[in-house]
Write a structure and sequence with these properties.
Blueprint (H helix, E strand, L loop, with lengths): L1 H25 L1 H15 L4 H15 L4 H17 L3 H17 L3 H17 L3 H17 L3 H17 L3 H17 L3 H18 L5 H14 L3 H17 L6 H14 L3 H18 L2 H17 L3 H18 L2 H114 L3 H7 L3 E6 L7 E7 L4 E8 L3 H21 L3 H15 L12 E10 L4 E7 L3 E4 L7 E3 L6 E2 L10 E5 L5 E5 L16 H10 L5 H16 L8 E7 L1
Antiparallel strand pairs: 1-11, 2-3, 3-4, 4-5, 4-8, 5-9, 6-7, 6-10, 10-11
Helix pairs in contact: 1-2, 2-3, 3-4, 3-5, 4-5, 5-6, 5-7, 6-7, 6-17, 7-8, 7-9, 8-9, 9-10, 9-11, 10-11, 11-12, 12-13, 13-14, 13-15, 14-15, 15-16, 17-19, 19-20
């Protein structure tokens, strides 16, 4: 044991000698503090005191020399576990969790944070329980599981309010603001971020103000207030540089670079993003490397340098797969399950211990009572025999009544269980609806690009297999209506895949025919569709238009869904037929989709839709039909597009009455 202690002390001395040399070269003020702690460590013989001193050194180096802190934390764990020093074990594990989180190793970080939570719960340490909840919430946010992130962060906030810990509350409010930003709720994101800023300033704890300002900048970015966003990013950057917090500096360059792209300042954007990528690689931050690749791909796409854009997109996809692969997600889920299971096992053990104590007391009491019991047992037997004859006739009735009551209770339990399960399922689907709605284009953006337009979207269930798509570049506006296989939850999964693959296709080409060809390949690749019988046959029908609003020219390509045009003053619907092949499923990888170029005049209107409106059943159990749908469109040409949307909505509701809607409904109209 003495030999082990000498080895450990020697390792620490060599490490601290290296630290002293480093700080002699880089920072006089920092050197003084590290030196004083080093001196204290070298004269300390008590293992617990050594661990405490190493913790103080780790705090100084956490954001400047994380690799050094990993070595120190392992030394702290060795000393603390040997002496059952709980404080040292908690803090060392927490530091290892923070470093791995900063490096993007979310599964490893979560393992350390759950370890801290378990130790803290056993010790009933509210401060560290709150700290662990907050850190676990950050990991789930990094994994895009915003529901779990919000759940853990709000648990942390409740404990910190009870402890009157304003600093901790401010940290939690910052993370809640980030979650609302991720859920596109910008109003609440700003609300919580400004509350966090106020508390940080009140307490003088400005260490985390950089995170708050970064979040505010993200919101302003989404709202198109790019100059305000840059202002807050610079405020964040100043704080991070002052703290020498190198892990967040790549994020700053990435964010500023993204804003310069939107301001079309491409040279400045490239300079910022290149700087961010270099620093992210130096620091080993996989999340920042992934972001740099994503922004660089978009930058070169904007500059029409598509080969470079594609190369960076490939790098983005590869690093994204590394961050979010199925194994890591599975490991994270298993870690939480293991933590919850162990927690319940400990509760059961505690309960069994209490029951054993109660049983021992009961046995002792029973032993003392035996003498009394046996003294009256003879008389009791006589009474029992007498009671038998009196109550025999009532026994059967009583048993029957008990059976009925038990059955009644069981029915109520089953009913309650079913209601709870239905509620859980409905809550999950409603949350899925929020995610799907967040992925759909903002109708305000569509109206901004196409002022005379409408989108009538009526899902059959809570979530939809139909989706609409919108994208605008310098020359054209792209708009599409798509009908995926199925509806409800299965259809919604397909719609999310379809929307993502449309984004990928537009990164490759702006030609509508090529876009659908890329989309077809993307869907088949994503669903691993082959010619085998076991392969899925899911896919979609789609109508895609590229609109040059200045020249009033439409380039249309369709897969089983046509384009309808009603010319100004005309009384017929002009139909441009689609290619008679679906996207995905049985369609060949090399399938070509025809593009049609149509010149429109002022006042002409075009429509794209899924088949849901025409297939709606009415009160007499009859479908509306495509013919009737066209007649309705012709009859409302004297109305504005907003009035047309309301008319179509009112008509279909009146048509089906109490009849259940059988399919998702999507109709898009545009007048040039």
């Amino acid at each position: 044991m003495q030999k082990d202690n000498r080895t450990l002390t020697r390792q620490i001395k060599y490490l601290l000698l290296g630290l002293t040399l480093f700080f002699c070269q880089h920072s006089f003020g920092q050197k003084s503090k590290i030196d004083s702690l080093t001196d204290a460590l070298l004269i300390t013989k008590n293992d617990t005191s050594k661990a405490s001193t190493l913790l103080l050194i780790s705090e100084e180096l956490l954001h400047q020399q994380p690799d050094t802190v990993i070595i120190l934390s392992n030394q702290i764990l060795e000393l603390s576990e040997k002496n059952n020093y709980t404080f040292g074990i908690k803090n060392a594990n927490n530091n290892l969790g923070v470093i791995n989180m900063n490096k993007g190793n979310n599964d490893v970080a979560l393992k350390y944070f759950f370890k801290v939570l378990k130790i803290s719960e056993e010790a009933k340490d509210s401060v560290y329980i709150a700290k662990s909840y907050n850190n676990i919430g950050i990991i789930y946010r990094n994994q895009d599981d915003f529901k779990k992130s919000m759940e853990y962060t709000k648990k942390s906030l409740a404990i910190r309010k009870n402890l009157k810990d304003k600093k901790g509350q401010a940290v939690c409010l910052t993370n809640i603001g980030l979650n609302y930003w991720s859920l596109y709720d910008y109003e609440n994101s700003l609300k919580y971020s400004f509350e966090a800023e106020k508390l940080f300033k009140e307490t003088g704890f400005t260490k985390f103000l950089g995170n708050v300002y970064n979040n505010i900048a993200d919101v302003y970015d989404e709202q198109g207030k790019y100059q305000d966003a840059i202002k807050y990013l610079k405020k964040s950057f100043e704080i991070k540089v002052a703290q020498n917090d190198k892990y967040t500096i790549p994020s700053f360059w990435n964010n500023v670079g993204s804003l310069y792209i939107k301001l079309k300042m491409y040279d400045s954007a490239f300079s910022c993003l290149s700087n961010g990528l270099k620093l992210a690689k130096d620091y080993g931050s996989m999340q920042d490397i992934n972001k740099s690749y994503e922004h660089l791909s978009f930058l070169f796409a904007q500059k029409k340098e598509f080969e470079k854009a594609y190369n960076y997109y490939q790098l983005y996809s590869q690093t994204k797969d590394t961050l979010f692969n199925e194994n890591k997600t599975k490991q994270i889920t298993e870690m939480e399950t293991k933590y919850q299971t162990e927690k319940k096992d400990n509760e059961i053990k505690l309960l069994n211990t209490e029951k054993e104590k109660e049983r021992a007391i009961a046995e002792e009491k029973s032993r003392k009572q035996k003498i009394i019991i046996w003294s009256v047992i003879s008389g009791f037997l006589l009474v029992t025999v007498f009671a038998f004859f009196i109550f025999r006739s009532l026994r059967i009735t009583s048993k029957q009544k008990q059976i009925i009551e038990v059955q009644k209770i069981e029915v109520e339990k089953q009913k309650h269980t079913i209601e709870e399960k239905n509620k859980d399922i409905t809550d999950s689907i409603n949350y899925a609806k929020r995610i799907q709605q967040a992925k759909l284009p903002d109708k305000k953006e569509i109206h901004s690009a196409l002022p005379n337009s409408f989108v009538l979207f009526k899902p059959k269930d809570i979530v939809s297999g139909d989706f609409y798509y919108f994208y605008k570049d310098d020359k054209s506006v792209f708009i599409a209506s798509a009908d995926c296989t199925g509806h409800g939850v299965p259809g919604a999964f397909m719609s999310m895949i379809g929307s993502e693959k449309l984004d990928d296709a537009l990164a490759h080409s702006v030609d509508t025919s090529e876009i659908l060809s890329h989309l077809n390949k993307g869907i088949k690749s994503s669903l691993r569709q082959t010619d085998s019988n076991e392969s899925t046959r899911d896919g979609m029908d789609i109508a895609l238009c590229s609109v040059d609003t200045d020249a009033r020219v439409i380039k249309y390509a369709g897969a089983n869904r046509p384009l309808w045009i009603i010319r100004n003053g005309q009384t017929v619907v002009e139909e441009i037929k689609a290619t008679k092949k679906a996207i995905g499923g049985f369609t060949e990888d090399s399938q070509h989709f025809d593009t049609h170029e149509i010149k429109l005049q002022q006042g002409d209107t075009f429509y794209i839709s899924t088949d849901g409106y025409a297939d709606t059943f009415g009160k007499q159990d009859k479908k509306l039909t495509t013919k009737k749908f066209k007649e309705i469109l012709l009859s409302i040409q004297d109305k504005s597009l907003k009035e047309q949307e309301q008319h179509l909505d009112n008509f279909i509701e009146d048509w089906k009455g109490e009849t259940e809607q059988v399919d998702d409904i999507l109709v898009i109209g545009v007048r040039l």
